[in-house]
Amino acid sequence: MGNCPAWMIFLASALLLVLGNLEVVNAVGCAGSFFNANSTYVQNRDNLFSTLADKVIVNGGFYNASLGNSPNRAYALVLCARGYEQQACMNCVESATRGIQTNCLNRMDSYTWDKDVEDQISCLVRSSNHSTFGNLELRPALIYPSPLSIEPSKNISLFEQQWDGMVNGTIEAATDAETSSVLKYYGAVKAEFTEFENIYMLMQCTPDITSQDCKRCLGECVTLFKTQFWGRQGGEVNRPSCFFRWDPYAFHGAFGNVTRVPAPPRPQAQEKGSSATDKKGKSNRSRVIIAVFVVLTFINILVFIGLIKFFARRRQSYDRINIGSAEYSETDGQFMLRFDFGMILTATDDFSSENKLGQGGFGTVHKGILPNGQEVAVKRLTKGSGQGDEEFKNEVSLLTRLQHRNLVKLLGFCSEGDEEILVYELVPNSSLDHFIFDKEKRSLLTWELRFRIIEGIARGLLYLHEDSQLKIIHRDLKASNILLDAEMNPKVADFGTARLFDADETRAETRRIAGTRGYMAPEYLNHGQISAKSDVYSFGVMLLEMISGERNNSFEGEGIAAFAWKRLVEGKPEIIIDPLLMEDPINEIIKMIQIGLLCVQDNAAKRPTMSSVIVWFGSDTITIPLPKALALTGSQSLSEDGTMSMSNVFTELSSR
């Protein structure tokens, strides 16, 4: 709070500590708003729960899914510890879902870290009415201390020093950046202490968060245990995004063939014991209650006064900062927010390497934080590039007039001297290519999630082609230009090479070919002919990539479209489909392959519009046209127009 006196900060810290104590006492793994036990949400949640045990096995130990429509859509995330046995994992997940259904009867948010009957595997099940995928979730916290205390004769000071060193080593092991497994963020360590028996420690985070978030989560688990129950012989702290446990015995199969001893029962609350223990518990509770009232009495008025002063100073500070100014362009009649370059430098910490998100031919992208606390992505174009100047002006003029949930949002720009900078909303999950072409991360993309991403991209293109006040041809549609927000919703990005069409214009020609080979339609690549069907072709290539999990240029020079056509003619669609999807509805996936092949037809007139594609996505009754043979396949086995054989192929595949 700026210049707040030290005693005010001390009292505020005391209040937070007391409230932290109360949170631990009351946390039960259930939070969020309430719902009716017979609501559509709970039906969706329970239906989703019934599939988790099977799906987590198919997806390598980690699975994220949702079911239903907003506002009753249910989201679930499930994780098994590394080294799991399939049946033990399934038993653990089934036990966890039953626990949530029993103990969180009417709360939207819930989670539990459960164990199988032999204590050899832990698993997480988490549910909510909103997506938590990719977000660090710390509340509520559950803590389970051992009922036994460390013997007074032990050297507690030495023990704590060695214990802290073990904690640091386990956190480093769990967040090792070199670990590439889907079940990353996992550390199991056994250590020998000088004056104490062996200690065993286990840490794990959900693999959808960042390494830094995992470190923070585990660190807060350790701090919570040491603050509340230091001196106990072991314990466990659970948070929605991570798990921490330590004990003086091997409580998990990860510790190898170490002889196990029966685990002491995990107390749900302070167990009855000696009268001294009871008195101590009552005394602790009394001190907490007294501390709450004392701290609140002293601090309420002081904090209120401090906040008034703080926000007054903050408002004055904002008045002195040139965040941006509205600039009016006479040519297109649009207001655009111009950011001050000094503010951009402050927001990105002088474009520090720690804030760098990525780099391409255009320049670099850095994360920034504006004075109002908003996180942004700052795209700094390479200096002195004539093409960069043109793309900069193009993107500013187009994106200021486009607003759609599946398009990245441009917040403003900066143009000072030779600096040209674009400021976008921050989309935290990077681009689609970082998921779909990564062998480990691809397993996070379930078929349901892939379909949602594909459909979102299609809706973004439909808006550009038909529904916006402008008619825009993107010209460089590919996985690296699709950004994913916190809920994995796709946003079409990079409009530097986009082309503005007149309302009645359907096709144009250009001498400047801009885009990425492999995604360009043949008429555009060979003759410079641009139309909405150019984007449809690029969309078809990307759709087939989403189904296969492989890049277009990975198919020995022929491209994914020709490869997919040949495999379908041979009646071998399983070669096209990502092995991770083989347990999903094959008929639906084959239908998507059919749509993808229609989008990459050599003749632009034979390709569908994006409005047709959207209709096909949502209908099981409309007859979808059959694609024709592609020029690059060189196929000789089809009938004259390629239709009859293809019809037989799709009929046979769909009947499987």
Please outline the helices and strands.
Blueprint (H helix, E strand, L loop, with lengths): L5 H21 L3 E5 L5 H19 L3 E6 L6 E7 L5 H18 L3 E9 L6 E7 L13 E4 L10 H19 L11 E8 L2 E10 L5 H19 L5 E5 L2 E6 L27 H46 L3 E6 L4 E6 L1 H7 L8 E5 L2 E7 L5 E7 L4 H14 L10 E7 L2 E7 L7 H4 L10 H21 L3 E3 L8 E3 L5 E3 L6 E3 L5 E3 L12 H6 L1 E3 H17 L10 H11 L16 H14 L10 H8 L25 H12 L2
GO cellular component, one term: plasma membrane
Protein name: Cysteine-rich receptor-like protein kinase 39
Keywords: ATP-binding, Glycoprotein, Kinase, Membrane, Nucleotide-binding, Phosphoprotein, Receptor, Repeat, Serine/threonine-protein kinase, Signal, Transferase, Transmembrane, Transmembrane helix
Q: CA-to-CA gap between the ends?
A: 66 Å
Find the CATH topology of the largest domain: Transferase(Phosphotransferase), domain 1
The number of helical runs is 16
Estimate the strand proportion.
15-25%
Q: pLDDT average, as an integer?
A: 78
> How do the strands of the widest beta sheet line up side by side?
1-4-5-3-2
Task: Please write the CATH class name of the largest domain.
Answer: Mainly Alpha
Helix percentage: 25-40%
Structural class: alpha+beta
CATH superfamily of the largest domain: Transferase(Phosphotransferase) domain 1
Number of E strands = 23
Number of domains: 4
Task: Categorize the overall geometry.
Answer: globular
Q: Which residue ranges are poorly predicted, with pLDDT under 50 across at least 5 consecutive positions? A: 1-28, 257-282, 313-335, 634-644
Q: How would a textbook summarize the main sheet?
A: 5 strands, antiparallel
> What is the radius of gyration?
29 Å
The name of the CATH architecture of the largest domain is Orthogonal Bundle
